[in-house]
Amino acid sequence: MNVPNSQGVISLHDDCLAQPGWPTSEAHPAAGVVWQWIVVNHRHNSLLWAEEDLARRTRVSDSEIAANKRRIDGFNQARNDATERVDECLLISLSLVDEASARTDTPVSRAPAGARLSSETAGSMIDRLSILALKIQAMRQQTGRDDVDDAHRDGSRVKLTQLLQQREDLGGCLDRLLTESAAGRAYFKVYRQFKMYNDARFNPALVAEGRSGRA
How many CB atoms lie within 10 A of CB 154? Predict the structure, then answer.
């Protein structure tokens, strides 16, 4: 399994966004398990982005907005699940987790003594790079609109420059973490998100609905 670098991740994100029919088309081909999960994460971030826009509509029925919200919950869950899969793949590749426990709720870290713990995982950085790719695409579109004034386009160009800088900075942090992790100087862990609102066993409102349905 090849450990990605930030430039490869950024290029993959941008290539996906340029693909006709993305994100509802077939997944972008990717070589290697970790790259496949990076694509899955990016696809669900893209679906989530579009659904969030639809959920802000003001001239549709409440039932349509409720449907948007349910799809948002599903896409967000899938996005988080894919982020965890990315972390699992990377930690296994870097020999920083016990492979047998990697997909359980209690992964066993195999970090070297004295290594620095990163509070942010490589998978979460890649997830943030995905979101920045979407922001950059959307802001770039604003700079080319012909139905707005120059002030809007100029302001959007300033914001676009800042977003590109943010992505470059975050990419550098990802590369540093992966390089130091490969050298045994740093490590990260798989952190389970435990999204309880989607689980009828944990969400108190859904638990109450289940009880009333059995009454």
Answer: 11
**Structure tokens, 14:** 């941008």
Among 95, 2, 106, 88, smallest CA distance to 41 is for 88
**HEC string of 96-134?**
CECHHHCCCCCCCECCCCCCEECCCCHHHHHHHHHHHHH
Q: Give the integer Cα–Cα distance in Å for 142 and 49.
A: 16
Tokens of 103: 């997909």
pLDDT tens string 54-78: 999 999 999 999 999 999 999 999 9
Q: pLDDT tens for residues 35-60?
A: 999 999 999 999 999 999 999 999 99
Would you call the peptide bond into 23 cis, given omega within 30 degrees of 0 as the criterion?
Answer: yes
Between vectors from CA 135 to CA 130 and to CA 139, what angle results, nearest 5°? 150
pTM passes above 0.85: yes
- Rounded CA gap, 88 and 94, in Å? 10
Residue 102 contacts residue 192 (beta carbons within 8 Å):
no
Q: CA-CA distances (angstroms) from residue 190 to 11, 88, 163?
A: 25, 6, 27
Instruction: Kindly give the pairing relationship between strand 116-117 and strand 186-187.
Output: parallel
